[in-house]
Specification:
Blueprint: H1 4-7, H2 14-31, H3 52-57, H4 74-79, H5 96-107, H6 129-132, H7 158-169, H8 180-192, H9 198-210, H10 212-224, H11 227-240, H12 258-270, H13 275-284, H14 293-302, H15 318-338, H16 357-368, E1 370-371, E2 373-374, E3 385-386, E4 388-390, H17 395-428, E5 439-442, E6 447-449, E7 453-455, E8 466-468, E9 478-481, E10 489-496, E11 507-513, E12 516-522, E13 534-542, E14 549-553, E15 562-563, E16 565-570, H18 582-609, E17 616-618, E18 621-622, E19 629-632, E20 640-644, H19 669-676, H20 684-697, H21 718-730, H22 735-743, H23 756-765, E21 778-779, H24 782-792, H25 844-848, H26 867-875, H27 877-893, H28 898-910, H29 916-932, H30 937-949, H31 952-955, E22 956-957
Antiparallel strand pairs: 1-18, 2-3, 4-17, 5-16, 6-9, 7-8, 8-15, 9-14, 10-13, 10-16, 11-12, 11-14, 19-20, 21-22
Helix pairs in contact: 2-5, 8-9, 9-10, 11-12, 13-14, 13-19, 15-16, 17-18, 20-21, 20-22, 27-28, 27-30, 28-30, 29-30
Length: about 950
């Protein structure tokens, strides 16, 4: 059989093989191998799914899949439970997310590294840890002296010498320096994510021509000190932290306090928080010592890193849920801080890197000993929540809270005491149901027409509750109370209702009696005179039995209508209720006490609305019971193997390194944080240095920024990567110092257009520009494109924001047509960082330009160029509106000078002067839009602005 995987270049992609290992193989192991593997007691359907050859060959039903075509693959049809194919797995349909993963994998060409049938979980001894340490990424970074170079005039520091030495080996020449305007635009976008204003651009060009080195350094220092630096670089980190303002998944609940973590990240980059401390706070901030309440709050918020990920909150098997959450945290921590794909070792020893399953479960014990999901949400015992913890309060807030609690407790005591008094008076006044005179017909015994709502919200009602019409379907509802009277005679008729200002003032009530019928008008907005509950309709003659009745209709009414009970009292019995009798006095006191009680309850509600808000943060917390966990054979929750002692990656722990012992009553997160942030860790500094390089050059020294393992890329300049890692640690783990050094280098300031001779030679020898013989041409990120549109048009709101999802309820977006939820982005003019990031409902503009998927770690965003992006820029109402705003400003500033308007437009949009040809073409375009399309001068200029915004140049850095 032809080996289609070997022929398909996709199969050789580390990213795609990694997708198989993390998304496909674990599902096959858990759900398929029992019946379809070499170890199956009875092979079913003649189908082996534990090798790529077996999967391709298929079973009794034919080939299992067609690489590249999920719609024609039996595997996908079976997973979908297609009626014409066997349902797989037969006991329970897999989730849509898992089925989508298989579809995506097959579209890739079904890359599969398995050459042989999968064996049962091997013992840890199957991996030679010491041999694994020989791999470059697991050896401690070493300082390296900069190499000698022939062209001593080109480098501006040791970093450039490492770059130039490699180029000289290939006889490449570095590209010339970018011109000042290009460099200014690059520097501004890279450091603060916004374009320079025309004034800033002009100043930079003027100064740069006089003194390039000094100007570049001074500008970099100024931009590094701006608060926008943290917004730009904080967004890079939020891509790694899988930040979002909702949980996503099966039940998309709102993270109302996620914004605190977002702001913590922004502030950390602005303050140049040492990266090792940054790590400690995110892994174990809740466990770190602190000197003051502000530091305590900051560290607590930092530990929200572990809570941010998506969770299957409605998972009924809670042990599976907690292990799945631990798996997501292990995978995240591995990729973010170590550049390692640790999740692959959940079901078996890692197939490519020296990471035994025992190491995975050593980490799983740490995170299984940590609370991040807990409690009940939506009043459903099957839906879990997440940990939120109180933050330390300022003395002022604490004083307000104490005063509030004291006032609330005082009101609650008064209400409790008065409630007892009212109940006693109710008994004395004969107002209890058993003591009421005559015949009482309750709403539950009445004849009801229409859709009335049952309630007990308002006090002073008879029986178990009352009805209200909800101010709906007026004229179509009625309630009829029909008594069974003991004999003929004159009766006083009373009606009960709970009065309120929202009630209708003219409710028609008809009394049908022996002498005919009479319609009366009842004002339900005023309190009834008898005990604040009963209003007298009048005295009427009734025959015995059920000949008469009282009917209330909603016709002609506008406010709420209450329908409770009607009382029929023989007139002869009314002597018992005279005001000078004990009954009468008690009823007067009851009415007075009831009114006071209602007033106090209103005061309590008003007070609760003004309660000081206790600040809460999503934060981690150690469990009461901590400990090691069992290895799960094939990753199955109930299939227990030996216990794995909590610890760290053996291969990344250097021989002879003293590792901290995790205490019995500790989760181990504090020790893990210290191990990750240690200068002795061979991965941590390298990974972060490489991330910074990637963001400033468009490609890392290791291109696979989240994978330093066997399937990852090898460093293009290993000595430079090591030297930068060593310097990073020696600088006190300063990110700003590292950024500054890179942007001041000669390599950074290269043009994206090399000299022709080098381009011809290098295009063949180094087509991916791994040796950095020119600067990479880069597309702006989704956020930078949107923010630039706002900034250029003068509409960017510079204010920061707290929670962008305050207006959303507990459920962020609707999961069905019967639920409410969702958000509106119309008119939002803040930086994209402050837009609501709701999983499954991300901002469409940002999604079109490849924003990071918050469900996973994203160190390297895609930067696609597809037709939908151009169509969005042409048809977006946002782009059109901002184009009109910009045209209005240009016309106001230079009303009679179209050429100056065009120049200013180019300066704002492209950070450069237009050529004479471009000016001529632009002016011709504006005239044609006015003459041929009938646009006003301002509309024509807006059309030109829109055209420039939609151009490729606006979206790219050279």
């Amino acid at each position: 059989m032809t080996d289609v995987w070997a022929e398909d270049p996709v199969a050789k992609s580390p990213e795609h093989l990694e997708f198989f290992e993390s998304k496909i193989r674990p599902v096959l192991v858990e759900h398929c191998y029992q019946c379809h593997s070499a170890d199956s007691e009875k092979l079913k359907g003649g189908l082996f799914l534990d090798s790529r050859d077996g999967m391709m060959r298929g079973g009794d039903s034919g080939p299992t899949l067609v690489p590249g075509d999920p719609e024609d693959s039996i595997l996908v049809k079976s997973l979908r439970y297609d009626s014409e194919f066997p349902e797989m797995p037969p006991k329970e349909r897999l989730s849509e997310d898992v089925i989508h993963d298989f579809e995506k994998w097959i579209k890739m060409g079904a890359p599969d590294p398995r050459h042989e049938n999968t064996a049962p979980l091997p013992e840890a001894e199957g991996i030679d840890i010491e041999a694994g340490r020989q791999f470059w990424a697991f050896q401690a970074p070493q300082p390296h002296a900069a190499p000698a170079v022939k062209d001593a005039s080109w480098p501006r520091g040791d970093m450039d010498r490492f770059i130039l030495a490699k180029l000289e080996e290939k006889t490449f020449h570095p590209a010339p320096d970018a011109d000042a305007a290009v460099l200014a635009r690059r520097l501004y976008f890279d450091l603060v994510g916004l374009p320079p204003s025309p004034e800033q651009l002009s100043q930079f060009i003027s100064d740069y021509e006089a003194d390039p080195e000094r100007t570049l350094a001074a500008t970099a220092d100024r931009l590094l000190a701006l608060p926008q630096f943290g917004e730009k670089w904080g967004r890079h980190w939020l891509d790694l932290a899988r930040y979002a303002d909702s949980n996503g998944g099966d039940i998309n609940l709102t993270y109302h306090n996620a914004w605190r973590y977002r702001q913590y990240v922004v502030d950390a980059f602005n303050a140049d928080k040492p990266y090792d401390q940054f790590i400690r706070e995110q892994i174990a901030g809740d466990l770190l010592p602190y000197d003051n309440p502000d530091q305590r709050a900051e560290q607590l918020i930092g530990s929200g890193f572990l809570v941010m990920g998506p969770k299957m909150l409605s998972e009924r098997d809670k042990e599976k849920m907690h292990l799945d959450i631990a798996d997501e945290q292990i995978d995240t921590v591995g990729r973010v801080f170590m550049g390692m794909t640790l999740g692959c070792a959940r079901c078996h020893d890692h197939k490519f890197d020296p990471i035994p399953a025992r190491d995975y479960y050593a980490l799983a014990g740490i995170f299984r000993s940590t609370y991040t999901a807990h409690g009940i949400r939506m009043g459903n015992v099957n839906v879990s929540g997440w940990i939120e913890r109180e933050l330390p309060m300022s003395p002022e807030l604490e004083a307000k809270l104490v005063a509030y609690q004291e006032e609330k407790q005082d009101l609650e005591k008064q209400i409790a005491s008065l409630t007892k008094e009212v109940e006693a008076l109710k008994r004395e006044a004969g107002l209890e149901e058993a003591a009421l005179l005559g015949v009482v017909v309750d709403d539950k015994d009445a004849e009801v027409v229409g859709d009335w709502t049952s309630s007990t919200h308002s006090p002073n009602f008879y029986g178990e509750g009352y009805l209200h019409d909800n101010k709906a379907d007026k004229g179509k509802k009625s309630v009829t109370w029909r008594p069974s009277l003991p004999g003929s005679g004159e009766y006083e008729v009373r009606i009960s209702y709970a009065a309120s200002s929202g009630r209708d003032e003219a409710v028609p009530v008809t009394v049908v009696h022996a002498g005919g019928e009479e319609t009366l008008i009842v004002n339900q907005s005023t309190q009834p005179p008898i005990a604040g509950m009963w209003d007298v309709l009048g005295r009427f003659h009734f025959e015995g039995g059920k000949s008469g009745f009282v009917q209330m209709k909603t016709e002609g009414t506008r406010g709420y209508i209450i329908a409770d009970a009607v009382q029929f009292i023989p007139v002869a019995d009314l002597e018992k209720e005279k005001q000078d009798s004990p009954f009468g006095k008690a009823r007067a006191l009851y009415a007075e006490a009831s009114g006071k009680l209602k007033s106090l309850e209103g005061d309590l509600k008003a007070l609760e609305k003004q309660a000081p808000e206790v600040p809460m943060a999503m934060a981690a917390q150690d469990r009461e019971k901590t400990g090691d966990v069992n290895i799960r054979i094939r990753g199955e929750v109930r299939n227990l193997g030996p216990v794995a002692e909590r610890g760290f990656l053996q291969v990344a722990s250097l021989p002879g390194e003293h590792l901290p012992k995790i205490g019995e009553n500790e989760s181990g997160r504090l020790e893990l944080a210290g191990w990750l942030a240690s200068p002795a860790n061979p991965l941590t500094a390298r990974v972060m240095v490489n991330r910074v390089w990637h963001h400033l050059h468009g490609s890392g020294l290791v291109r696979t920024v989240d994978n330093f393992g066997e399937l990852g890329d090898r460093p293009s300049h290993p000595e430079l990567l090591d030297q930068l890692a060593v310097q990073f640690i020696e600088s006190g783990w300063s990110v700003k110092s590292l950024v500054r050094e890179i942007v001041l280098s000669r390599a950074y300031r290269q043009s994206a257009d090399p000299d022709p001779a080098t381009e011809i030679l290098a295009a063949q020898a180094d087509p991916e520009n791994r040796l950095l013989w020119k600067q990479n041409r880069r597309r702006l990120s989704a956020e930078a494109i949107r923010d630039a549109l706002l900034a250029v048009s003068g509409q960017l709101d510079p204010e920061t924001d707290q929670s962008p999802v305050d207006d959303l309820g507990e459920q962020a977006i609707a999961n069905s047509a019967n639920q409410s939820g969702g958000l509106t982005l119309d008119g939002l003019r803040k930086r994209s960082l402050y837009m609501p990031m709701v999983r499954n409902d991300m901002p469409p503009f940002l999604e079109t330009f490849d924003m990071a998927n918050p469900d996973m770690v994203t160190g390297n965003r895609q930067a696609t160029t597809v037709p939908t992006q151009a169509l969005l820029m042409l048809n977006s109402e946002l782009v059109g509106s901002l184009s009109r705003d910009l045209a209005g400003q240009l016309r106001m500033a230079e009303p009679d000078d179209p050429e100056s308007q065009v120049r200013d437009l180019y300066l704002r949009a492209f950070s450069r002067e237009p050529s004479a040809y471009e000016i001529d073409r632009a002016l011709t375009f504006v005239r044609e839009m006015a003459n041929d399309e009938g646009q006003s001068p301002e509309e024509a200029l807006a059309s030109l602005a829109h055209m420039l915004f939609a151009s490729t140049e606006f979206r790219y850095l050279n």
